[in-house]
Every structure is written in structure tokens, then in C-alpha cells.
Design goal:
The complex is a heterodimer of chains A (143) and B (532).
Chain A lengths: L1 H23 L3 H31 L1 E4 L3 E6 L3 E8 L3 E7 L2 H5 L3 E7 L2 E8 L1 H17 L5
Antiparallel strand pairs in A: 1-2, 2-3, 4-5, 5-6
Chain B lengths: L20 H23 L3 H7 L3 H22 L1 E4 L3 E6 L5 E6 L3 E8 L1 H5 L2 E8 L7 E7 H20 L12 H9 L4 E4 L1 H9 L4 H18 L1 H15 L3 H27 L2 E6 L2 E6 L4 E7 L3 E8 L1 H5 L2 E8 L6 H6 L1 E7 L3 H8 L11 E2 L5 H26 L5 H6 L1 H16 L1 E4 L10 E8 L2 E8 L6 E6 L7 E7 L8 E8 H12 L2 H9 L6
Antiparallel strand pairs in B: 1-2, 2-3, 4-5, 4-10, 5-6, 7-8, 8-9, 9-10, 11-12, 11-17, 12-13, 14-15, 15-16, 16-17, 18-19, 19-20
The chains are: A alpha+beta (143), B alpha+beta (532).
Amino acid sequence: MTASIETLLAAAVVVGCAVWGARTGWGFWPLVLTVVAAVVAVCAMVVGLLRRMYEYDFTRFLIGSDSVRVRHGWLWRAEEMLPYSRVQHVDMEQGPILRVFDLTSVRISVAAGEQRIAGLAPHDAQAVTQRILDHVRTAKEDL
Amino acid sequence: MARPTNSDSGAPWHRLHAAALIPAFGDVLRTAGGFAVALLALRIGDWGTWRDWRAWAPPVLVALVICCAAYPVISWARKGYRFTADGVEWRQGVLSCSRRSISYANIHAVNATASPILRLFGVEKLTLSTGDSTDGDITLAAVPASVQEFIEHERAVYSARSSATGESSSAQPVVRAEESVSSERRPMPSLRISTTDILKFAVTDVHMLAIALIIWQVISQLDDIAPQLTQDLESRALAAASGSFARTVVILLVVLAVLFACSIVLDLVRYYDMHVWRRGDSLVIERGLLTRRHAAVPVRRIRTVVIERTILRRITHLNTVRIGLAAGADDADNSAITVLLPAIDDAHIYGALREILPEWAPVRPRIRRTGSGLLRYYITVPAVFCALTVLAAGILASVLRDARWYALALVALVPLWQLVASVVKYRVEGVEILPEEHGALPHRIAVRGGRGWGEYTVFTRRACAQMVRTTTPFWRMRSGIGSLHMPVFVMNGIDELVFTRIRRADARELSDWLCMPAEQAATTDAEPPAGA
């Protein structure tokens, strides 16, 4: 979804630059900006397509004994580890688009950041939240 | 200042000193003055319009002045504070009233600011900061100095009493109440920052460029009000500068000298007679020439101790020490409050820090470089960007034969700057998990990193680091070279431990260190660490 919005935005910028160029007779800066915007839009579209194809395969999470681990990203593969002793609160969210597909995302917040596990079935999200909260309850505070 | 013994609801309310009205009136006058200048700038040449205004402008102005004068007085009359058994309570509001309570246990810092005007009345502005990421502070605009002493004393007593009864947060060291209070009276180590050190700080302050930008902004604003005058000045300056090479050099030197002078004056005003000392479990920082600032920070609230060296200070072997707190905004004023030592040389820095922060047991860390042998991973991307930018500018300039394409060559300076910054990071980035010491805070770590062309060393504790984020591009999955970020919960200064390039094994070691369960950590810490 994010990739599509990025591509649409890039395309809108290209169209805007092209309209500006056509109205001003394709001067120096309209030409440069249109070319740059077109290159960025094409790259965004290609990367967006690849991301959509692979993103699902590379998104994983693990509720371990000491921390929650979330892996995501295809080009840049990121792994985030949140120790239970740092977790401040856990939220379940369902925006209008997720509601259409009957999906829920879980957001785990620490004092200096957060991590999201997106696209879970509501009962799975409930179970994940409960398991994390159980761990948080028993985790000893770090001295 | 009487300690409240009755119930919270019965504690008496205190009104702010009437001197609090002076800054309020100042704000009103400043707003009105800006409004008047804007009106004059728009209408001063148009006498016809001005004559039309004369009929109705005076009553409107009088009404405005009455409103502007009355509001601060009503607002002041509605404000009040009181001391309850657990903390400080504050009320304010004319139309919409609000009350805020801060427990003594949650006060992260007590900052007192005494401007020359407030000093005339023997009062000061007091800010009680909490670890709230929203605007959760209490600001008492004008209160006697005894209020600050009372709050600090009550905070120390409350903190010690809570620790003794086990009600406090676990991050708080256990001390007996009478021990903590009596320790306030013991002579504690102190540091006085000399004027020479402040001058060294000012001369090596790269923020001098910010002053140049401010001057430029002032000139731009002048241009809006009196365009003819600024045009005359600009044309005269250009004529003088382009007269001869020697004259150009002289003018450049004069500009530099003015910027240096501004930097020195500003830093002297900010840090004059700076004094850092310990009072009980609090670190007290006092400084300032015109406005005296006094900050008391409980040592257990300090999240990071950061030693910074900008490029100029690396050359001159000087360091600046800052402390990171979970309270206060990350603005210029607050960053000045958290400066512990503006300029101190390499030889004395750790000795001075051990004197005033023995709980942190700061020693020169034996940093293990995590980027060792990874130079190509650091510089490949900026080097490629740099080369591509230069190449693109060259091709465009030669094909299109347009002089303006040369302007793109300037863009190459950005990746070039980034390239040098990457080399600096490669040379400095590293870590040491510090061995446990008796009497020192547990689970300390020292991380060195690069920022721009400068470097910094952060001392922090495991409890302050919140999570680990490792990122590896898919083409480096085999080699396992990625980056690691560890956000730290501080509201000012460096809030992340960063390793731009790190091996998988090192990243795993750091992740394991952060995610180690508390009970396992306690067992490990009980054993004498190797090499300690």
C-alpha cells in the first residue's frame, strides 16, 4: 500500500513538472526537474513492484523468551529486538483499509521507539498481544 | 518554608512574586511593538491612509493596551503553587483552569534562572522537569530562592525515604534517608570552569557559523523594512570588497574577527563563572554572566555522559562533556544547561569526571573498533555518489555548454563531505562493555562514534538502551556486514548508539547484552569480571 502511494506521488510530481515545463516553454530548470522526477518515479515503481512481491516473504516475527524480534525488509533486511523489560505498552490497531480485509496490526512501544507487526487476523493479534503482555508482566526490570 | 503536615487538600496555596508580571508585560510589549513596526513599515509613506486612521486608531489602541495589561495581571492572580506531602502542585488558567501535580520522586531536574531584573527582587524562575515527553514541566515564573532549596531538600528526603521502604523505582540506589540528607551537608567535590576554558570553547565552537546565519537573517529583515538603506549598504560593501585583492582579504578577516568576537561574547555570557559541584545525590551546575542559571540534577536521572570532540577540538585535544537526561526539550537553551564541562583537555577529563560522577566510574575506555577492516563498506556508497555527481556535472557541462551546469559541481561537495565523514566513522566507531566496579552503576557501556568530522564517546547503561535494530542489505547477507542502531531514552543530545558498519558476530554480542535477562545479568555481575 505504501509503495503504491509513493509511486502515485512520484507520478504526480512528474506530471506537475511536465505541465510546468509545457507552460513555460521547457526552460532549464523545468527540464532538469522533470527528468529527475521521471527517473525517481520509474525507480519507485520498479522498487515498489519488487517490494510488493517479496515483502510478505521476508516479514517474520518471533516472540522469544527475553524479547520480541521482528524481521522485515527485502532490499535492506532489518531485524529489531525489543526486550520485554523495556516494553511500555502494546496496542492493537485496525484502520479503515485493514478493516475491509478483516486484519489487525499490533504495535509494541518502548520509551524510544516502536515496532509494528502488521496484517494479523484479529484472533491472532489478540493472542500475540496477550503473549507479549504475559512476558512483560513476568520480566524483571533491568537495574 | 514549612513542610506540609496536613492533608494535601489543606496545604496553603502560594502566589508567584509580583516580579512575574515583568516578563509577562515584556511579552505583551514585544508583541505590540512588532505589530506597530509592521504597521509603520506598511503605512509610513501613505499619509492619506494614516490620516483616515487617526479618527479610530487611538481608542482602539487604548482598548488594546488595557486588554494587554489586564490579561497578565488576571492570569498572574489565578496562578499558584503549593507543597503537598508527596510533591508540588500547580494551578493556572483564567477561562480554562488546570492543575498539575509532580511527585518529588518524578522530578528529573530543578532548573533555576535568575535574570538581572528578577535578581533585583531577590527571586528566580524555577522549572521542575519530569521525564515526560509531553510538556509536563512546572514553571514558577518568580519565586524566592528558598523555594528551590526547599524542593531539592524535600526531593532528596523523599527519594531516600522511598528507597528505604522499597517504594522507589528499581533504578534508584538504596540509601538511608538520614544518610542522604546528611550527605548534603558534607563538603563535596566541585569544579570551577575558568575563563580560559570558556575562551577555548568559544574559539573552537563551530556554531560560529550559526551566528553568521543570524546576522544574515537580521540583514534580510532590515531589507524588508528599509530596502533602500540595505541596497546602499550592500553596494558600498561590494565596491569596497572588489577594489583590490588585499582589501578583499582584509574585509574577510574583519568578518571572521567579528564572528569570533560574537562567539566569544555569547559563550562568556552563557558560561561565565561556571561551577559544577555535588550536593548529596544531586549534581549542581551554576553558570551565566547576566542571567544566572542553576540546575540540580539527581545523578540517578542521568542517562548518558557524552564526551564530544568536534574537528577543531580534535586538533586542539579539547573535549566537551554533556549529560543526557530524560527531561527537557532538545533546544539550544536546554543543551547549554546539560553542558557539564565546556572545554577540558584530554589529560584531565577522566580525573575530573571521576571526581564529580563517581557512580559512573568513568575511565578512558579501551574501545574495540567494530569497523576495523571494513573500510570499503564505509566508503563505497559515498565514493560512488561523489564520483557520479562529478561525472554527471562534467558531462552536462561539456555537452550542453551551459555555464550554469557548473553549479551542479558544487553538489559534489555534499557527497565529498559525506565521504570524509565516513572515513572518520570508520576510524573511531567502537565499543567496550565496561567491567563492573564496586560502588559504580551496573551494566555500563562505552560507545565511540563519529558525527560529521568530529567524534563522541557515550557512556550509558543497559537500562537506558531500549531496543536493537540491525539492518543488512541483501547483497551483504553472506558477509554479514550491516549497521546497528540502539535507541537510548534521552531527550537531549545523542539519543542513539550507532554502528554504521558492524560484523554479525559483534551485532549479536550487543543484542545479547541488551536482551540478557535481569536475573542472568545479576548472576554474571556477581562474579568478578575478567580483567577487572
